[in-house]
Amino acid sequence: MKIDIVGAGALGLLFGGKLAAAGERVRFWARTAEQAALLRKEGIELTEPDGTVHIIEGKRFAAGTLDHTAGTNLAEEPDWLLLMTKQGHITEALLSACGRLAGKDTNIVCFQNGAGHLERIRQMIPGQALYAAITTEGAKRSDGRRVTRAGFGETRVGVHQAMDFPDFSGESLVKMLQKAGFDAFLSNDIGREMFRKLLINAVINPLTAIWRIPNGQLLESEARRSVMRQLCDEGERIFRANGIAYDADIFAQILEVCRSTAGNTSSMLKDILSGNPTEVDFINGRLVEMARAKQVSAPGHELVWQLIRAMQPDMNIKI
């Protein structure tokens, strides 16, 4: 299949590299011409969790930038477009470029955290089959071409609820990902799973970033658990007010995520430590927006949202 990867960060290189190694026709769309040239020249170096290193040569895929497409055959419409940038990078310009790439039969898959992006993408690129993906794959990019798969995770894919025709393609995507070495599944209720992940991230990520601790240390005191409980309770009230279904044991699931990823540094903490903007606007900020719309009190999420915003560079990112 022909696969376009928009965003050559850690997950983009991991998924795109393994898909290219499995024989798919992959095109990377990087943020800079320098990274695209590096990928074409030196290929991708991918390190597996057991230390095995794979080199995917540049001749096995194409690489360019969305604003410099000279020499790239845009007539080759992709079967799948995997949008793998962070939410803060999903601008009108980027979505317009994705719309130019996509043909009438192109399926778009969105890998973003948070909520609200699918509706924006649907407005900017109407008529395309739109999917959401949730992955627990861990990856770390050390430079423009080197990526380490930190651990094996699961990837769940499902059609966006706004689509008004049957899903006949999702299974082919799942099989393609499985062939490339990913534990992939087709979800019949991806919306519920997205909101589950939203609440998990909204509890764990900001607290680890504020206290600058790995996930597991959230469980080391009753005081920390109490704050986690408050954020979870507020999230449940927000979900109920908005008619969103959630699991009754969601707090137990959050605690289990902390245990199973005890040594992990959350993405929000990584962003704070590296001086990069976080995704807090699209996680806690989105919950606050949902709470305000239904006049639900959410002081905990209001507070951590403002604290994280004050800790990061002022990038004027708004929800």
Order of helices and strands: EHEHEEEEHEHEEEEHEHHHHHH
* Strand residue content: 15-25%
Helix content: 40-55%
Principal-axis shape: globular
Please give the count of helices. 11
SS-derived structural category:
alpha/beta
What's the CATH class label of the largest domain? Alpha Beta
Number of domains: 2
Annotated CATH homologous superfamily of the largest domain: NAD(P)-binding Rossmann-like Domain
Unreliable residue stretches: none
The Rg value, from CA coordinates, equals 19 Å
- Largest beta-sheet characterization: 8 strands, mixed
Can you list the strand order of the major beta sheet? Answer: 5-2-1-6-7-8-11-12
Total E-strand runs: 12
Distance between the termini: 35 Å
At CATH level 3, the topology of the largest domain is: Rossmann fold
The overall average pLDDT, rounded, is 91
Q: What is the name of the CATH architecture of the largest domain?
A: 3-Layer(aba) Sandwich
Oligomer: single chain
Catalytic activity: (R)-pantoate + NADP(+) = 2-dehydropantoate + NADPH + H(+)
Domain Ketopantoate reductase C-terminal: 189-312
Protein name: 2-dehydropantoate 2-reductase
Domain Ketopantoate reductase N-terminal: 4-160
Keywords, separated by commas or semicolons:
alpha/beta, 4-stranded mixed beta sheet, Rossmann fold, 8-stranded mixed beta sheet, 319 residues, 12 strands, N-(1-d-carboxylethyl)-l-norvaline Dehydrogenase, domain 2
Walk me through what this model shows.
There is one protein chain. This protein has helices at 10-21, 33-42, 92-101, 117-124, 170-179, 190-211, 222-241, 250-260, 267-274, 284-293, 299-311, and strands at residues 2-6, 25-30, 44-47, 53-56, 61-65, 80-83, 107-110, 129-135, 138-141, 146-151, 154-159, 183-186. With 319 residues, it is α/β, with parallel strands linked by helices. The chain folds into two domains: 2-188, NAD(P)-binding Rossmann-like Domain (Rossmann fold); 192-311, N-(1-d-carboxylethyl)-l-norvaline Dehydrogenase, domain 2. An eight-stranded mixed beta sheet has the order 5-2-1-6-7-8-11-12, sandwiched between helices. A hairpin with a 4-residue loop joins strand 9 (138-141) and strand 10. The radius of gyration is 19 Å and the shape is globular. The protein starts with a strand and ends in an 8-residue tail after the last helix. The mean pLDDT is 91. GO terms for molecular function: 2-dehydropantoate 2-reductase activity; NADP binding. Residues 4-160 form the Ketopantoate reductase N-terminal domain. This is 2-dehydropantoate 2-reductase. Keywords: NADP, Oxidoreductase, Pantothenate biosynthesis.
